[in-house]
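Appendix B. Chain record.
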Amino acid sequence: MKPVAISTLAITVFALVVVQASNSQTQDKPVEQTRKNIQVLKGLPESQLFLAMNFVGDSLGVHCDYCHVKEADKWVWEKDDKKNKLIGREMMRMVLELNRTKFNGEPIITCYSCHRGSLRVERIAPLPPKDFAKEALRSETRVLPSAKEVVDRYLAAVGARADASSKPIVMKGIAERSVNAGPFEIVFKQPNKLFAKQTTAPGIIIQASNGTTGWIQTNQGTTQMTAETMSQVETVLALYRPIKIPDSVTRAQVTGITKVDDHDTYALTIADSATQSTQLFFDVNTGLLLRLVNVTNTMLGPLNTQRDFSDYRDIGGLKLPFTIRTSDVAAFDTAVRKFSEIKIDPAVDDKIFEMPRPK
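C-alpha cells predicted for this chain:
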C-alpha cells in the first residue's frame, strides 16, 4: 500500500503520523477513483486505505512486498504478478462475505481473527486451558466502580488544580522513532497553546500555535499552517495536557478490569458514533491513565491508534508522565518520547507561540 504523504508536522516532534481513520471524512473519494486495479475494496475511503493495508499486513505478520511488486525502489501497487496478492483478494472477499451474511454487515470477522499475526492459521487450542471457575471467583470479589468514580479518582490523582495547570509547562527529552529521532522541547500552555522544537538531521524544526493560528519554521523559512495541519495540532495537544481524557468521557461505561502491561486497569469505553469508539484504561491502584485507544471500524476491520503513558512523577503538584508512546498499525509511525526534564515555568512569554514577523 502506498504510504500517504507525511506532513511536516507529522515527521517532526509530534510524530503522530497516525493518519487517523477517524479523519475519514465523507469528502474522501473511494479508492477505486484514486487507485488503479481496485477490485475488492470498492467504496473504502482513500484516507483509510494506507492503515487498512497495514492492518492486513500486521494480521498476517508480513510486509507490503509479500503481495506487492517493487521495481527499482518504486512500488507498482496495481500489478498482479504475485500469487499471494491474488490469494489475498480471495481472502478479503471471504471476510467481507462472512460479515455481510452472518453479522449484518458489521466487521466482526477480520484477517486477525484467524491469523493472529502469522501466515499459519492455528487449529489447536493452547494448553493448559483457562480455569474459568477460578477467574469467576476472582471477579466476584471485586465490585466495579462507576465511570464517574474512576474519572473523579483520576482527576484527583493527576492533581488538576487551576493554579498549576494554567501555567506554561516546559518539557525536554528525546523522541525515539524510525525517522527524525533526536532531542526536542515542548512548551505547552492551557488550553491550546503549543511551541515545539526538534533537532533533526536536516536541521532544527519549530512548530507553534497560539490557539488560533499556527506556523512552521525550518531552514527553508517560516510558513503558516494550513487548516488541515491545524486540525492535527489538537491531537498533539492531547498528549501534553495534564488532563488527557476527552470531554466525551462523561458518556463512558466501565466494561471490566483489563491488564495493561503488569497493571490491573479499569477499562472504560465511549461509543463516539456508529463507527468510532474510545477506550481508556486507568490503573486500579493509582487511578492514573495508562492507555488511551481510538478505534475506527472499516470494512476490513477496526483501525486503532494507541497512546501509552507511564513513569508518572510529581511536577509542582501535577502528576505527569515522563514516557509517552504513540502507535498505530504502521510500524514506522511508532514514537516513544522520553522526557529528561519537565517543569512549570511562569516566566515563559506568550510571544513564543506567535508567528515571527518577516525581517
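Further analysis of this model is presented in Appendix C.
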